Hints:
With 807 residues, the chain is α+β, with helices and mostly antiparallel strands. The chain contains 18 helices and 33 strands. The strands form eight sheets. Strands 6-7-8-9-17-13-12-11-15 form a nine-stranded antiparallel beta sheet. Strands 5-4-10-16-14 form a five-stranded antiparallel beta sheet, covered by helices on one side. Strands 26, 27, 30, 31 and 32 form a five-stranded antiparallel beta sheet that branches. The longest helix has 22 residues, at 485-506. The two termini are 59 Å apart. 58% of the residues are buried.
Amino acid sequence: xxxxxxxxxxxxxxxxxxxxxxxxxxxxxxxxxxxxxxxxxxxxxxxxxxxxxxxxxxxxxxxxxxxxxxxxxxxxxxxxxxxxxxxxxxxxxxxxxxxxxxxxxxxxxxxxxxxxxxxxxxxxxxxxxxxxxxxxxxxxxxxxxxxxxxxxxxxxxxxxxxxxxxxxxxxxxxxxxxxxxxxxxxxxxxxxxxxxxxxxxxxxxxxxxxxxxxxxxxxxxxxxxxxxxxxxxxxxxxxxxxxxxxxxxxxxxxxxxxxxxxxxxxxxxxxxxxxxxxxxxxxxxxxxxxxxxxxxxxxxxxxxxxxxxxxxxxxxxxxxxxxxxxxxxxxxxxxxxxxxxxxxxxxxxxxxxxxxxxxxxxxxxxxxxxxxxxxxxxxxxxxxxxxxxxxxxxxxxxxxxxxxxxxxxxxxxxxxxxxxxxxxxxxxxxxxxxxxxxxxxxxxxxxxxxxxxxxxxxxxxxxxxxxxxxxxxxxxxxxxxxxxxxxxxxxxxxxxxxxxxxxxxxxxxxxxxxxxxxxxxxxxxxxxxxxxxxxxxxxxxxxxxxxxxxxxxxxxxxxxxxxxxxxxxxxxxxxxxxxxxxxxxxxxxxxxxxxxxxxxxxxxxxxxxxxxxxxxxxxxxxxxxxxxxxxxxxxxxxxxxxxxxxxxxxxxxxxxxxxxxxxxxxxxxxxxxxxxxxxxxxxxxxxxxxxxxxxxxxxxxxxxxxxxxxxxxxxxxxxxxxxxxxxxxxxxxxxxxxxxxxxxxxxxxxxxxxxxxxxxxxxxxxxxxxxxxxxxxxxxxxxxxxxxxxxxxxxxxxxxxxxxxxx
Length: 807
């Protein structure tokens, strides 16, 4: 997309040039446009407001919307972007020429709660006109249709142009174009496009961005499109402009057709226009409504909170991210985060339109919960057929055909496909042969990982180790079903050893945060107390690894590797919340980790290698699943995720983390990826987990192994209390085991880790209790201030209560 600054600069230069050497104006088309290759190209912001595709496999186009205009369109697969931007230009022919994106106030509507159907309403800031656009994809062919109503509100007549910036075949610098049969056609290698209007074009031209042949530059100079070029035959950054005949209130349809060559693209655009917008849109909506009807009932947690539309859009988003040529391949997002700052001249940048096995696991577990196991099974087939390497590993991510985008190795991405196969009951001999390769790879290469889930650092990661353990236990069960008891025993032995040592590798007792006791993000060598340096590879700087914390350790609970009330997990939450949690206007959100550099700059500029990490709504969902595992409510977390969505009901990757700065709204999406499929999947899965009363993704075979049945809960009370010589700390509460509020029967705490005072008390399983700390000195007893503290002995055999004395 041309940035506003770039566009204004182009117009200013053109106007200045016109003053120096006015060019003759002619309406006669010239043979070929000069100025190739034109200025460099970029993509558009990753903050999409709407998007869509038909459910039918015959329609291999995906459109995206943002800033009131059309953004990237993908064809023929969901990883090939072909359009930089598509928008209207309005002129009075004498005094002004305005880009729709820059000169209007904007509103977006979802026009059907059971379809990815979006309408953009853009009203001129000067009050002169309104443009209303309704988008659909023709289910029978690869065409995007835009029904447009142009209204002159005052001071007509006005002229309307469509400005089309193709960036075909994942590149903005290899396109050629022409006027052909009343359409504007373009091509780059195996991809061609055709732009057509139901009204036809009064004028049409093709040229090169930012040069004299750029129709928008020409139009902006004197507000009249003079010189027209009927071809631009040298590959470059192509720009096409067509004038649409309008009066004071005109409704017409714009078509963008795609094909393997110009003839096919033109035929698709023409056929879609001939069939009409209404027929295509009706079939489009019917396809989406039919898909939703095929799923299980909407969870009560959703209907009771009035979130049905948000839930439906989330599920449609997940399906819409699946490719139609490579079934089961879902890209992470139909975006390129901060694409306006990304070079689009070449084809090397995958953006987020690539397949990560980790993200595909998140999507698939949500789809299983919602009743679309068929989609999850397609994804398992894709993972083990296309992505799995001969050694059993999985790549960091790939294009749809399995070729690498980014080239690192993340061990959780080797484990998650195994867990997914187990969850779907895929234990046949053919699948077992593939699972065995991956499980053997985990045993040989784990538990340390070259990169953990945030893709920037290597070492011992609690979240990665949780996935590895879960993967091995699931693999052991599949092995046993196939009679390979030796492999099953080896996998379980390895997993048990890692489960027993994960805290020793990653739980520091000498950290600089809080009381110094917590899981840190990642440890370079498995010694969490040696203060090794960590370099954050996103501009976040160098730090003592003990000073960098994330909430990835919650995967230990969510994947069944540790009981919900594990004392080390519970001990880490105060540091996570005090360091990473922000209460936004939309509810609680968390950063990935402190010192994160992956986000907009401090002033709100796009991330280009260094910035400030922002809040991630999916982490709110993960925390909600943890709360459920502990028998607590998570409706607050579900509501916060829903509130972070934009007017198109798309939940972002990141939201802005503070009021009044950067050009973004506190608690709303940024220029990162919106929607992020993982975010939408987490919302769906949390809703089903709330109804189930526990995380639905937890593999039962893992939980059964590591969360043993117990007659009572060993509650570890820890309080940070400074005392003088002769003073001692006790805990007393409403249960007999806690002294029944009798200070004489209070439980004494030991001060071996002073100023931390600790004691273990066994409480009956499933009971709620209240308690307080008291200080005794001689015959005197001092109660801490404040209301009674509360706890619940549920969710596991152990629990930890970490407090600070209230004077």
